[in-house]
């Protein structure tokens, strides 16, 4: 009987060790199998109210003026609308950026409506995504009768500030002319 108990406890101990060894030998979860970043909330940083300093290039000359911006999410945050007021030297104007995220393509599209021509044809949307904290968006279209590539860049993003730039290229993106810089400060 004693031998039976010793063998039984030995067998249980060996089995327990085997279970422990198997549990420790189980492969760790694969970090590359983690779900990919869903960019649907990449613009959440902009929700709220902002003071905006503008630098705008017209005819080779830079002009500066102030403005405000207010952004809110739509459709579970995968779309948003940004309302802008520009205090230009020639008077106040408004503009609206409408953004929508395509989860299948993992890309944003951004359209612009200008209060100076609210029923004008919408330009093709700039399309792109955020990579390493910088959002870059492109569109091709006609500007003053010339084939032009447009680039929007969001960068220097913190909880209280951000920067947006617009640039045009007349040579399919080989060279760029930055013509508008907006520096956002949270109100």
Which keywords apply here?
ten-stranded antiparallel beta barrel; 13% helix; 1 helix; Lipocalin; 187 residues; mainly beta
Number of strands: 10
What is the top-level CATH class? Mainly Beta
CATH architecture type = Beta Barrel
Distance between the termini: 82 Å
Q: And the CATH topology?
A: Lipocalin
Estimate percent helicity: 10-25%
If you compute it from the alpha carbons, what radius of gyration comes out, rounded to the nearest whole angstrom? 27 Å
Q: Could you give me the name of the CATH homologous superfamily?
A: Calycin beta-barrel core domain
Silhouette: globular
Q: The biggest beta sheet, please?
A: 10 strands, antiparallel, barrel
Kindly state the mean pLDDT as a whole number?
85
Which percent range describes the beta-strand content?
Answer: over 45%
Seen as an oligomer or otherwise, the chain set is single chain
Summarize the structure.
The protein is mainly beta. Helix content is 13%, strand content 53%.
Describe the model.
This protein has 187 residues and is mainly beta. The chain has a single domain (40-186), classed as Beta Barrel (Lipocalin), CATH 2.40.128.20. It has one helix spanning 2-25, and strands spanning 48-58, 61-74, 79-88, 91-102, 107-114, 126-131, 134-143, 146-155, 161-169, 177-186. The chain is globular, with a radius of gyration of 27 Å. The chain starts with a helix and ends with a strand. 16% of the residues are buried.
């Amino acid at each position: 009987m004693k031998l039976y108990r010793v063998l039984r406890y030995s067998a249980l101990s060996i089995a327990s060790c085997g279970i422990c060894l198997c549990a420790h030998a189980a492969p760790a979860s694969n970090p590359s199998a983690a779900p990919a970043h869903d960019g649907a909330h990449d613009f959440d940083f902009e929700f709220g109210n902002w003071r905006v300093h503008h630098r705008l290039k017209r005819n080779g000359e830079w002009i500066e003026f102030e403005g405000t911006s207010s952004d809110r999410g739509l459709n579970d945050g995968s779309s948003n609308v940004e309302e802008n007021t520009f205090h230009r030297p020639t008077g106040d104007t408004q503009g609206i950026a409408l953004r929508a995220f395509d989860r299948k393509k993992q890309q944003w599209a951004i359209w612009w409506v200008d209060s100076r021509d609210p029923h004008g044809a919408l330009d093709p949307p700039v399309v792109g995504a955020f990579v390493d904290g910088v959002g870059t968006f492109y569109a091709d279209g006609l500007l003053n009768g010339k084939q032009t590539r447009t680039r929007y860049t969001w960068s220097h993003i913190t909880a209280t500030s951000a920067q947006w730039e617009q640039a045009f290229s007349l040579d399919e993106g080989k060279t760029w002319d930055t013509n508008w810089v907006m520096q956002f400060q949270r109100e």
